[in-house]
């Protein structure tokens, strides 16, 4: 068998990844070490995506391979210990009235492989749910996603509700998605517009003060 | 003996189709002026398509769901009440003096509710009443292991697999045996008519059919009003890129991504297989409507969705075949490209000169003019976000710039990059004014 798990995963060799994984486990290798290798492999996928070498199909496919890896690996991991250290929290969601999740999931993926603890609230998220999530998680960074034009107002209303709830002061809000641009950012009174998932990562890093 | 249609060149076929479009049969114009206006508008668009220099830059504004907003009714009312929709349409038609107007582009809420349509949510059906756009529900309406079935017998797939998944009313078909093959067909149909599940289906579809007739009557009247007032139709037929047919409608984003890796050959085979059917249905639409343009919304070939290599492998070859097939029949594909095609421009250039129209949403228009300027008519680029957030002055200025650069030597249509749900009407007027003020050649 050629290559190690990190590179096989990064190169999206589905069958070889799974075969090597089973072989490693059968040989009694430390499952936590394997877990680290899969994280490293996915980080390379993220880097290649950021570099314009990988696109949406590769991300979706890598996610699917990872799902299978995790299904095999999880039962071998004892609970509770070995928490990987995260940079910090980011809450994301697609605003009310909009059910698009492709961009949202890419942002989740990229934030995750870049070391953030992501809470993905999903699509068509009511304003109150955003407010509740910000209150509960105390996240300093919120990402609002939207694809269609009705999202313009939903974003604006969400930001206003956060203001009203007194949660806006220590919160940075970024927006992104299909029809969004910097004009919409101003309209919605958000802090930044990100044109792609990489922008979501760099904005979050900037706001957390990490490089 | 007169020359047969099949002996015509594509240019001759197109001339025939344009002739029919320029002098539409059975249209009684409201006045001689309306007739004159119609011919002037159609000629303007035709010249832009042919990359000749018209009297001025043509301007089109897709009606979308904006029609409802503009009339002060909500989308739900427009989708459920044909009378209200018609009133709204007339107002839209009267208020915006653009160069083409088809008719309302909405579907009937009542018909689709009756049939339990699952592919969309809309206000009053899955979305709250105040929503301004219907939304597509992406699902795997075709499963990963159904390519062979699709390729072998897409009628059977459509009837017994796709329909029951997309429309609740069609569920009984999922359990029915295949209808393909002529032997024993009468008995199967008889058995079907006695099956309680199908009896319920027949009742439902009759009810939906009655609603559909009412709805269609309204749509036909709206179109007729547009023609009689002097507005040519702009989309005679509809088609989807073969890749989008699978990526949007059948397999969904996740499904198609998996197929590109796990079964690329099957996917390519299916794309090839449906191309001639897509051509046929697009051309049939133009035959029926008398408008030679084929509307093609494009989604998943965009710069950010796939790599250039994937575009060249999965998207472009069968899409190009589709376009050539439509062009060969004398029709004009009008693509509306969502998102951005900056890296694809050199590739999509590879078509017969002045045979298609590219309406671009976020693509760099000046780059597009540079690369496509000698080969195809382009338009678009005024975005929904600009229309919602900017002033009429800013919009007009943007249009002036577009006209100056992209309008040079013709081959340009001033247009939105997508349809919209709402904006300040003055912003749409600013677009029309810009075409009339700055677009005269």
List keywords for this structure.
heterodimer; A: 211 residues; Methyltransferase, Methionine Synthase (B12-binding Domains), Chain A, domain 1; Rossmann fold; 5-stranded parallel beta sheet; B: 441 residues; alpha/beta; TIM Barrel; 20 helices
Short description:
The complex is a heterodimer of chains A (211) and B (441). Chain A has 211 residues and is of the alpha/beta class. Chain A has helices spanning 5-10, 14-26, 31-50, 56-73, 102-113, 127-137, 151-164, 182-188, 197-208, and strands at residues 88-94, 116-120, 141-145, 172-176, 192-193.
3D structure, described in words:
The complex is a heterodimer of chains A (211) and B (441). With 211 residues, chain A is of the alpha/beta class. Chain A has two domains: 5-76, Methyltransferase, Methionine Synthase (B12-binding Domains), Chain A, domain 1 (Orthogonal Bundle); 88-208, 3-Layer(aba) Sandwich (Rossmann fold). Helix content of chain A is 54%, strand content 11%. Chain A is built from nine helices and five strands; from the N terminus they run ααααβαβαβαβαβα. Chain A has helices spanning 5-10, 14-26, 31-50, 56-73, 102-113, 127-137, 151-164, 182-188, 197-208; strands spanning 88-94, 116-120, 141-145, 172-176, 192-193. Chain A has a five-stranded parallel sheet with strand order 2-1-3-4-5, with helices on both faces. The longest helix of chain A has 20 residues, at 31-50. Chain A is elongated. Chain A starts with a helix and ends with a helix. The mean pLDDT of chain A is 90. Chain B is α/β, with parallel strands linked by helices and 441 residues long. Chain B has a domain at 5-61 and 96-101 and 231-438: TIM Barrel, CATH 3.20.20.210. Helix content of chain B is 55%, strand content 8%. Chain B has helices at 10-22, 32-49, 66-71, 75-80, 82-95, 109-114, 147-152, 154-166, 172-175, 185-194, 196-228, 242-250, 252-262, 264-289, 308-328, 345-348, 365-372, 384-389, 392-406, 425-438; strands at residues 59-60, 120-123, 126-127, 135-136, 237-238, 293-298, 332-337, 357-360, 377-380, 412-415. A seven-stranded parallel sheet of chain B has the order 1-10-9-8-7-6-5, with helices on both faces. In chain B, α15 (308-328) links the parallel β6 (293-298) and β7. In chain B, α12 packs across α13 and α14 packs parallel to α15 (308-328). The longest helix of chain B is centred in the middle third of the chain and has 33 residues, at 196-228. The mean pLDDT of chain B is 96. The A-B interface holds A 12, 14, 53-61, 64, 97-100, 102, 148-150, 152, 178-181, 183-184, 186-187, 196 and B 121, 127-128, 131-133, 135, 137, 253-254, 256-258, 260-262, 304-307, 310, 338-339, 383-386, 388-390, 418, 420-422.
